[in-house]
Amino acid sequence: MKTKHHLAALPMAAQSLAAFGLAVLPLAVQAQVTTPAEEDDAVALNPLVITATLAPRTADETLSSVTVLDEATLRRQDPTSVTDMLRGQPGVDVTTNGSFGKNSSVYLRGTGNESALLMIDGIRLRSATAGGAAWQFLDPRMFQRAEIVRGPRGSLYGADAVGGVVQLFTHEAEEGGPHPRVSVGGGSFDTQRYSAGLSGESGGTRYSFAGSHLNTDGVPVRRDGEDMGYDNTTALTRMSHTFESGAEVGFLALRARGATEYDESGSPATTDYVQQVAGIYGELPVAANWRSRLTLSEARDESANHFWGSILDTQTRTARWENTLRAEAHEVVIGMEYMNDSVAGSITGDSPWDGPYDVEDRDNKAVFTQALLDFSPLAVQASLRFDDNEAYGEEVTGSLALGYDINSQHTLRASYGTAFKAPSFNDLYWPGFGNPDLEAETSETVELGVRGQFTRWFWDAALYQTDVDNLIVWQQMGRPTMNVPTTRIRGVELSLGAEVGAWTLAAAATYTDPENRQTGNRIQRRASQSARFDVDRELGEWSLGGSWVVQGHRYNDAANEDRIGGFGLLNLRAGWQFAPLWSVRLNIENALDKEYVTTRFFDGDDYLNAGRAAFVSVHFGQ
């Protein structure tokens, strides 16, 4: 039976993770006397997470499946793209139409790219036309940490959080200062990378400024094709001030712009792009146990396609008001949100899909509430949200999570949550592809998990099932977008992490079964199995490390006839701190020079990714 086949595939990834756990365990259960260094390790392994509950909670208190990539992790790995940073993380699947700024999709727990919500410092960033985020245009050096929350968060964030939320956090101001940081480097494919930042704090005012530039000739995305280049320039400004009364005001602005080349029917083409978020906020302590926060923000996604002569400019403007009330160990959040999506520009020119969008503007009004209740050893988290969408009417989403501390190290959790996703402007109105009769996606998810949290290590396991009605799926060229009536996604996620002496270890294994219940086929472009292993070692002034990412096969089509093989990638890294605040780093990506593919062109050719690549960089600052 099909079920037996799927279950039989699970042990391959799980056994690898178990072997890693058995290797780490003897090291992790050394003397229980906690040193200051061990306390730092404990913070790294059980970090505070904001995205899961709108409030700071340690990873084991969130009652969610979460992964945090902290500053030390990002500094060690120094990825060239956000998708490289996310690939192989628990419950995360990534596809790319080539390397260096080419179209990318992030699938959380088998749901679509449009169902993975991306936020930057609390501001939603996505294309209102495409529906999902342009992950490929974000420079990871602009971010200090990342939180990946898996599972529905519709009751907190509204539409698009069916599979979960990825939130990127920019660099926070450090005490004193100013603290400068500079990085210069380059490598394969005539790649150049520069970044600089300045942050500090004085008299209650905190500031952080940063900029970066990446330029590369790129690699071919089609066999025997030309190199497809990419450049990105990003600027960031972040400031805030806290008054003696405890009130706080601040603003954030991040803008990335550049150009990427791609293959259009065998000919080189160029798209200019802009990704931008900006926001201001004010937070007021209304009473000793009541804080009120108002945020006004705008996110913009712009693109100009020089091959077709088309220009698109989408904007999402949001006003969000949150009120947090505390009573001893309990906390309640009550809020409301207004969001407006608009589309401007032209898709005429020489495009074969001429014509304007039938609708170019829509809004969404919402009210929401959440209760975080602590009856130790029992914890209860409940949330409810009401959305009134101009295009799809009213939607109610909610969630309930229960957590029980089995002992001081282990927490058992169970949750149920619902979510919905409204079709994007492209889904509905893109000439030649859009389908104005589409229904909104709705989902229900049940999850059971357990986390073991120790001073020097942790482990986490989760089982879940998500039932999606009316999953929105794009078809092949010339066929309109459609709803898949019923989809069932089952999955298992396992993860381990350890800080043992000079060693930093992490491992993850994921099994996902996203099935179209009408046909019995796997949803296209989703891999069922993946694993990731990260190992780093400090050797005085030197550091050595590597990451191994493995992904199973996937299908490029809904009929499961066009099979794309799996792959394994080995990335190596080394660092040398040759003077106070000075270091040099070497990264070798795809060290074994594997040819790997995650998507194909409409004509059946593979989208090729980069082979072996080496990058060297010199860094100054903390």
UniProtKB/TrEMBL annotation:
Alphabetical keyword list: Cell outer membrane, Ion transport, Membrane, Receptor, Signal, TonB box, Transmembrane, Transmembrane beta strand, Transport
Alphabetized PROSITE patterns for the sequence: TONB_DEPENDENT_REC_3
CDD domains associated with the record: ligand_gated_channel
Domain TonB-dependent receptor plug: 60-165
Tree of life domain: Bacteria
Membrane topology category: Multi-pass membrane protein
Family membership noted in the UniProt record: Belongs to the TonB-dependent receptor family.
Protein name per the record: TonB-dependent receptor
Species in which this protein is naturally found: Billgrantia antri
